[in-house]
Design a protein that fits this description.
The complex is a heterodimer of chains A (182) and B (122). In chain A, helix 1 runs parallel beside helix 4. In chain A, a hairpin with a 4-residue loop joins strand 1 and strand 2. Chain A is globular, with a radius of gyration of 16 Å. With 182 residues, chain A is α+β, with helices and mostly antiparallel strands. Chain A has seven helices and six strands, in the order αββααββαββααα. Chain A has a six-stranded mixed β-sheet. The two termini of chain A are 29 Å apart. Chain B is an alpha+beta fold and 122 residues long. Chain B is built from four helices and five strands. The longest helix of chain B has 15 residues. The radius of gyration of chain B is 16 Å and the shape is globular. The chains are: A alpha+beta (182), B alpha+beta (122). Chains A and B meet through helix 1, helix 4, helix 5, helix 6 and helix 7 of A and helix 1, helix 2, helix 3 and strand 2 of B. Chain B: Its EC number is 1.12.1.3. Chain B: InterPro entries: Thioredoxin-like_sf. Chain B: Keywords: Iron, Iron-sulfur, Metal-binding, Oxidoreductase. Chain B: Pfam families: 2Fe-2S_thioredx.
Chain lengths: 182, 122
């Protein structure tokens, strides 16, 4: 995949399929230690030891099909970029996936269209609470969808629809700010 | 106008509410975008984004857009299905532009674009 944001979407889809009601996404960039850390944590149904041992295998899947490429692709990318993939999971409690990359690595794809990734998720799963945080050296910005929807007085999916483009632009604005170090 | 704060979003929402009072209807058309790893890699996110954009631009109140996982036709991704009046049509090999055309032709005017159909369920 050409963008980190596509991997993020793919892993978050796993969380939604695991019936998560809350997903926390965190991006931490550190220029000094040359690290780029992506963490996705959910409160879904989690995985037991047997499943956990096999999720990195592209020929293992939790669904009714024969291959499952999401996690293997992210792991391949992390190891290609001088990093690694860690998965911690507890049945009934949730799953945490953390990918570490070398920030300056030439094979690290750009973050890409993160606002679009998040917008697509809000639109199709407005009931899932998403907490997002992006830290770049000493800049940080974050939001929580539940709080935003409450503040805007949005109730059903039909309410969210007209403001989707606005939310996307709002995320884009803050992402630009953080890239510029504001 | 640049949207930089929650206040800006509130304004958009109020603006939108005024418009929605004019049009009310029940959702009778369902569009499902396949969003498995295969779909995402082939461009399903961009397709979904253009569907959302087109539907909100046209202010279509009777359309629901949602997503599903891999349905096993990975080589025809990006795939969507359009469910309207008991008929479910699957379109394959899509692009954001084709997705917009499906909204105007199939969803709004009821004309199925046969050329892009991969499967139909009745």
């Amino acid at each position: 995949m050409k963008e980190l944001a596509l991997h993020i979407l793919d892993i978050m889809e796993n969380s939604i399929r695991a019936n998560a009601s809350k997903i926390c996404v965190s991006l931490v960039e550190n220029s000094c230690s040359n690290q780029y850390i992506l963490t996705i944590q959910d409160n879904g149904k989690g995985m037991d030891k047997e499943v956990l041992a096999r999720v990195r295998d592209p020929f293992f899947t939790g669904q009714n099909k024969k291959v499952g490429m999401g996690i293997p692709l992210l792991e391949q990318l992390a190891s290609m970029c001088g990093g690694k993939l860690d998965i911690v999971s507890q049945p009934g409690e949730g799953t945490m996936i953390q990918a570490t990359f070398q920030k300056s690595h030439i094979d690290l794809p750009p973050l890409g269209d993160l606002p679009e990734t998040l917008m697509v998720l809000f639109a199709s799963h407005p009931e899932v609470e998403i907490e997002y945080e992006h830290v770049k050296d000493n800049c940080r910005w974050s939001f929580n969808t539940k709080k935003i929807f409450q503040e805007l007085g949005l109730q059903g999916p039909q309410d969210i629809f007209p403001v989707l483009q606005g939310i996307k632009e709002w995320i884009q604005y803050h992402e630009n700010q953080i890239q510029e170090g504001v | 106008m640049k949207i930089t704060s929650i206040e800006d979003l509130k304004r958009i929402k109020e603006e939108a509410q005024k418009n929605t009072l004019l049009r009310e209807g029940t959702a009778d058309i369902k569009i499902v975008v396949c969003m498995g790893t295969c779909g995402i890699a082939a461009g399903a996110r961009q397709v979904m984004s253009s569907l959302l954009d087109e539907v909100s631009k046209r202010n279509l109140k009777n359309v629901i857009i949602t997503q599903a996982g891999c349905i096993g036709l990975c080589d025809r991704e990006p795939l969507i299905s359009v469910e309207k009046g008991g008929e479910k049509v699957y379109y394959g090999d899509l692009s954001p532009d084709k997705a917009r055309q499906i909204i105007s032709s199939h969803v709004v005017n009821g004309q199925i674009i046969g050329e892009w159909v991969v499967h139909t369920e009745r």
